[in-house]
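INFO worker-7 received task bundle
INFO bundle size: 2
INFO processing item 0
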Amino acid sequence: MTPFELAEPQTVEEALALLDPDDDQVRPLGGGTALMLMMKAGVFRPKRLVSLRKLAQLSGIAATGEGGLAIGALTPLSDVERSAEVASRAPVIVRAMRRLSNVRVRNVATIGGNLAHGDPHMDLPPVLMALDASIAVKGRGGERSLRVEDLFAGYYETILKRDEIIVELRIPPQGARRAAYLKCTTGSADDWPALGVAISLEVDGKAIGAPRVVVSAATEKAIRLRGAEQVLSGATIDDSVLARAGDAAAEEAETVSDVRGSAAYKRELLRVYVGRAIRQALSSNGGAH
C-alpha cells in the first residue's frame, strides 16, 4: 500500500470537516474490511482516510415506536446479528447475517460501511430494500434522509456526496409482514452470491398484498422488480402465479456476466429463486420472519 494520512476525529462535525467534496482520494473509514482489500490490491490509493471508529455516538441499536429499529452506522454486523431487538422486529436480517461472509468480517464490518461501499454482491442491501429501510445521511450542508432503494447509482456507486457519511439506518415497523432472503453461491455457503433475492409481503386471507421483490448480485446494483411485484399483488399463490412472477423478474432484470456465471445463467436462477423466496416468506409467521 502507498502511504496515506489517517485522521481520527472525535466528533461527527470534525469528521465532516476533514472530508473533501472535491477529492476522491479522501474517504471515510468505518470497519475497513472492504476498503483495505482494495488498497492492498492497488485499486484505491487514498491520500487521507478519516477514521470514524472513535465516534461512539454512531453505534448502537434501539427500538423505535410501534416496532421499528434505529441502528447506528458504526454498529458492527455481529452486534446486529446477536441483537434481541433485531431478532424480534426484523429476524430476516439475523438469518441473512449467518451466511454473510464469515464471523471475523462481521465482527469488524459496520452496517453503514456495508451500505456506503455500494457493492452489488452485498447481502444486506436487498434485505433492507425489501423492508423499506432508510438511512440518515449527514454532511456539511446538514442532514437528509434517503431510502435504501434510492442509495445505489450503479456498480460500486452510490449517490452519497464525498463529504457525507451515513449516521443511522432506520427500519420501519414491519407489523405482520413476512420476509425472506435467498442467495445462490457457486462456492462456499458464505461466499459472494451469484444471485440474491429478497422478498417482503403482506398476507390478506389467501391474497398477497404490498409485495416488494428485490434482486442483487446478478445485476449491477440491487433493484426492485416491479413487474414481479405487479404479478404478485392481490394474487392467490399457486404454482402458476409463482412461475409468472419468476418470468416477469427474469424479463425485467438486466443480469450481468462475471466469474460466478453468465448473464443467461443468472437470469434462469432468478426465474427459479423468486418463487422459492416467496414460498419461504409465506412459510414464516409474520413480523418480517
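INFO item 0 finished
INFO processing item 1
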Amino acid sequence: MNVQTFCLEPSSPSITRPDFVQDPHKSLVILFGASSFLESPDRIQEVCQTFSGIPVIGCSTSGEVFGSEIKDHSLVGGILQFDWTTVHSTTVPITDPSQSFSVGQHIANNLLRPDLRGILVLSDGLQVNGSELIRGLNAVLPESVVITGGLAGDGDRFKQTWVIKDSTPVGGMVTAVGLYGDRLHLGHGSKGGWDYLGPERRVTRSDSNVLYELDGKPALELYKDYLGERASGLPATALLFPLALKQDGPGENYLIRTILAVDETKQSMTFAGNIPQHSLVQLMRGNFDRLITGASEAAILTKSEDLKNALVIAITCVGRRLALGERAEEEIEATLDVFPQGTQQIGFYSYGELSPHANGRCELHNQTMTLTTISER
C-alpha cells in the first residue's frame, strides 16, 4: 500500500497524480477543506479532475489537520493506492434529520458485500441526526464491519457544511466509502478528557435529538444559568460545555453530546445525536491537560503492533479546539507521538465523530479525539 498526503494553501500549485496510482479500483482520495469551498469549488473540482476515475470523498471542516499542524482555509488530502483492498463509494441526499435512519440503511445496502471490511462515513453536519444515521448503518451491517467517520464542520458558525458528490462540494448529503478484502486493517480509538460540572440531571422531556426539559425545568434556561454571560453566544459557546450522556450499567461509560442549535421560543436545544427521555446527563467542561491526554489515549487504542505505512485520520471536535485555544495543536502532536516515526496524518475538526468505543458497534461521539488508521497486512 502506498500513501501520500498533501496540503493545498490558497497560493499552492496544483497537485499532480503520483506515479504509484495505477489501479482505480484499489485507489482512494480523501479531502478535507474549509466550508467556503461551497461557494468557490474550483480547487476541489481541479483535484477531482486530476484523479478522474478514482473515488474521491471529503467534507467541510472547522479546521484542517495536516501532520501535527492545524490549518484554516486550506485543502488537505490523502492519496491511497492499496495492494489488495478494493474500494467503492456512494452518496445519498439528506434534507431533514428525520431521514437519518433510512439514509444510514440506504448507504449500508449500497455498500454491503460479503468481503466488506470497513466503511468511512462523512456526513453533512447540520441536516443529520448522527445517532439515527449510525443506527441505520448498524441495522444492516454485520458487527464485523468497522464503521468510522465524522460530521462535517463549519467553524463555530453552524451555517453551512458540505460533502463531495460528483467532484463538487454540496450540502445535504452523506457520503461513504466501502473497503473490501481480508488484507485491510482499520484501527480505531476515541477518547474525550472532559471534566464533569454540576450535578447529574434527569431528561424529563426530549424528542430524538431535541432536548426540552431537565428535572422538569426548561433545558435552555438551565443551560444559560451555567453559561452566564457566555449565553449570548449560543450555540457556539455551548461547545465549551458539552453534555455527558450516561450509559446503562456500572462504571464511567458515557457518550458526549454537543449542541447544534437552540430554539428560544421552545426553550429547547438540538444536539448532534439523540438525548433519550429519562436518561441521566451531566454538564462537562474542558481541562487542558486531560484533553491532550485524551488525544494520546485515543492513539494508544488505535495503534497496533504491526502498524506500518498507514494513513491516520484524526477527527476531533471543534469544541476541543475552542477549549484548548492556543494549545490546540498539542492534541494533534500527542496523537502522532504515539505512532511510528514517519506516520502520515490528516483530519479535521468536526461536529461529531463516528467510531466504536473500543470494540463492538459504531456510535456517535461528540467532543472527542477519534482516530482511524488505514493500512494493509
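INFO item 1 finished
INFO post-check item 1: The radius of gyration is 19 Å.
INFO post-check item 1: The first helix runs from residue 42 to 50.
INFO worker-7 idle
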